[in-house]
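pasting for ref
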Amino acid sequence: MTKNMTFFDEMLTDSGARAPYAAYAKWFESQNNARLSTKAQEAEAFFRSSGITFNVYGQADAEERLIPFDLVPRVLSSREWTKLSKGIDQRVRAINAFLHDIYNRQEILRAGVVPIDLIAQNDAFLPQMIGFTPPGDVYTHIVGTDIVRTGEDEFYVLEDNARTPSGVSYMLENRETMLQMFPELFSKIKVQPVSDYPKSLRRSLAACAPKSCPSKPCVAVLTPGIHNSAYYEHSFLADQMGVELVEGHDLRVVDGHIAKRTTRGYERIDVLYRRVDDDFLDPLTFNPNSMLGVPGIMDVYRAGNITIANAPGTGIADDKAIYSYIPDIVQFYTGEPAILKNVQTFRCSQPDNLAYVLDNLADLVVKEVHGSGGYGMLVGPAASKKELSAFAAKLKDNPSNYIAQPTLSLSTVPIFTESGLAPRHVDLRPFALMSPEGVNITPGGLTRVALTEGSLVVNSSQGGGTKDTWILED
């Protein structure tokens, strides 16, 4: 599918390793392939023994699976990271300002920058949040920004994850695995640490606690339960932060606050890091059949007696049609052009865009506006005529449900194979924490890699793997 395209390899050039990889490449050349193969097997055993797994929905054999881990790190220079982190900081602040605006004064809609219908008719927009501002004015407490690269200095944001971004546990475990397997590497190459993330997450969440809470806020993680695909991450983060992992049935409203059940009775919670979708958060407000949430939690929230992270209603910022307006949103709220570029996006809800997409379907990537995890998308260059025809019918039937983008020449990073290094396409999900104290971006992130030769789909649910991400110190 990609044989006629050229790709930027982040590690190797015709004249040797690029500067950020120079020290690693020198070390790699001194290694024995048999030793590295053994280390790769050790890494798999470590992930298996640690229970680092995920589930794939919608498959008959949806047992827990290991996410494949590749032992060749992705390396970025401090200069490259500085540009990325500044762009992420700007983008996160603008998205938070956008959410505050659309749930309050709606100035961006009055100005005609974003179409009213795109908000009013969007299932992710929650009328229950209108006129309410979360504690600390923070909606996007944790954000994962998916970034792709096409050249030396060409970075693009592929999508924003402001609802319940996942994957940070793999970022942390990937680093821990590399430290255990190759400790000598980290004495030779100075890599910025990521291990402070759980501590930073807890501190950032506590800083967003309601004003009425005690001096030491009680933080908890709300999980849908063991059958959720990201349950490992929920339990991992709760353990690393030193807070309780709770399910909906562990919580109740007590004296106008949310309280957790303990052996000493019910104890108040001030900040709830929820990994439950909006629709299941409160059966009295949203889906009445939900068994995953807490009846009455939205009343407690609107009364200002608990912080919910991320705030309900943030999912509208993940909408891929909204994504196409993010450069305008950044300009509107910051007064500056966006540092990080968007990928050119065709909104299929617009007749002229739809006509173009239908005429060029074989060359485009088409995504559902609310889609995630690689589901419900079409990669035109890899699709058969039958698949293209079937997807065209979907587009015509419900055009507003889709956006389309050109197929990018995603950069590659080598993976380790039995026959040596082989290039594979990658993306990057850095994680940003927002509180009244500012935006804190962990130096690195989750690099996802398409392990199948030629594939552009990096999602673990679609066969992708992960790598450790190194940000070099100055």
